[in-house]
Automatic annotation (TrEMBL):
Cleavable signal peptide: 1-23
A biological process from GO: xylan catabolic process
Pfam families per record: Glyco_hydro_10
Domain GH10: 24-366
Recorded catalytic activity of this chain's protein: Endohydrolysis of (1->4)-beta-D-xylosidic linkages in xylans
Keywords: Carbohydrate metabolism, Glycosidase, Hydrolase, Polysaccharide degradation, Signal, Xylan degradation
Family that this chain belongs to: Belongs to the glycosyl hydrolase 10 (cellulase F) family.
Active site: E260
InterPro entries hit by this protein: GH, GH10, GH10_AS, GH10_dom
PANTHER family attached to this UniProt entry: ENDO-1,4-BETA-XYLANASE A, GLYCOSYL HYDROLASE
GO molecular-function terms, A-Z: endo-1,4-beta-xylanase activity
Identification of the protein by name: Beta-xylanase
């Protein structure tokens, strides 16, 4: 009798602890927590593609189910000379994704930055069109059926929504946009084709982006999605602005992907917004306030910011195909060197020692409390 009483007293505790155990096993990783919503991706640098660091490699495999190459598929690396392609690393990148059953995103075919020098010298429209056709057709056909989506054109817009006077625009006019999407669709009719940019959640650039999408469609190009890079700040853009953009792009029948998510916690020179890789500024102690450690108060702000962003993403999961972080951990982030070299930034969910941060817990918790 006494024994039974004891057991009855303990029963609620036993049930509670088994529930907790279940919670822990169900929400084990980002990709599993969000698997019904959208892909959770990361950008891989060359060392990660080559699996050089075993600890990083197991973290990548555990947490992410989509990959983008941070640099190695950009034209300066993959097409260094007119008659020379170098696919050594991109072959490894695609094989890595296949081996781990990940969604593989190609970044990027037509972009004015990180261009091979020989490309910037093309002045003639016939030559430029021939280059674009060869470049896009060669790369997209090579990975036909293996790469799941492509950034066909990256960053063609100015902040006011007008078209950037890039080497492509200067030689071919706006028709280059339509042609790029046509060449890509011809090379792999089934692959998803994206236009990708930064700040294209901001109203004026968003308007320009919507016009650009309409032009591509009107010209007979196939476009399946828009990539919002999402190089964001603690205070901006507002959740409302992001939501308006999700709704506006998806109203055009496009998938929305957040393709390069990170959140800077450092001061911005002249309140710079965006991600123009050609902008660089002088460093100073004032601009690098947390060289050793991120203060708890900022850690909490970052966690709250990530939570509100992911809450919005989950609300619109039917419109969002993928959310990709621009890097695996803080130590790897490009924001340590841009727009000022040699700073210590903390923009991702894992710290430089690969430990999950408060921001990771807050993104995970969002799913646990709901289910
Ligand atoms: C960045 C990389 O992260 C850096 O390593 C490189 O030095 C510059 O480019 N928008 C893009 C990305 O589309 O390709 C850029 O990546 C960041 C901004």
């Amino acid at each position: 009798m006494k024994l039974i009483n004891h057991y009855l007293l303990l029963l609620p505790l036993i049930i509670l602890s088994s529930c907790n155990a279940k919670k822990e096993t169900t929400a084990i990783s980002l990709k599993d927590s969000y698997k019904k919503d959208f892909y959770i991706g990361t950008a891989l640098d060359a060392n990660q593609i080559e699996e050089k660091n075993a600890k990083e490699d197991s973290l990548i495999k555990k947490e992410f189910n989509a990959i983008t190459a941070e640099n190695i598929m950009k034209s300066m690396f993959v097409h260094p000379a007119k008659d020379k392609y170098d696919f050594a690393l991109s072959d490894k990148f695609v094989a890595y994704g296949e081996k781990n059953k990940m969604f593989i995103h190609g970044h990027t075919l037509i972009w004015h930055s990180q261009l091979a020098p020989w490309m910037t010298e093309i002045k003639d429209s016939t030559e430029m069109k021939a280059f674009m056709k060869d470049h896009i057709t060669t790369i997209v056909s090579k990975y036909k059926g293996r790469i799941d989506s492509w950034d066909v054109v990256n960053e063609a817009l100015n902040e006011d929504g007008t078209l950037r006077k890039s080497v492509f625009f200067n030689t071919l006019g706006e028709q280059y946009l339509v042609d790029a999407f046509k060449f890509a669709a011809a090379a792999d009719p089934k692959v998803d084709l994206y236009y990708n940019d930064y700040n294209n959640e901001e109203p004026s650039k968003r308007e320009g982006n919507i016009n650009l999408i309409k032009k591509i469609k009107a010209g007979g190009g196939k476009i399946d999605g828009v990539g919002i890079q999402a190089h964001w700040r603690l205070e901006s853009p507002s959740i409302e602005t992001i939501e308006e953009s999700i709704l506006a792009y998806s109203a055009l029948g496009l998938k929305v992907a957040f393709t390069e998510l990170d959140i800077t916690v450092l001061p911005n020179p002249w309140d710079l917004k965006g991600a123009d890789v050609n902008q660089n500024f002088e460093g100073s102690a004032k601009m690098n306030p947390y060289p050793e450690k991120l203060p708890d108060s900022v850690q909490v702000k970052l966690a709250e910011r990530y939570a509100s962003i992911f809450k919005l993403f989950v609300k619109h999961k039917d419109k969002i195909s993928r959310v990709t972080f621009w890097g695996v951990h803080d130590g790897q982030s490009w924001l340590n060197d841009w727009p000022i070299r040699g700073r210590t930034n903390y923009p991702l969910l894992f710290d430089k020692d690969l430990k999950p941060k408060k921001a990771y817990q807050s993104v995970m918790k969002l799913k646990e409390t709901k289910e």
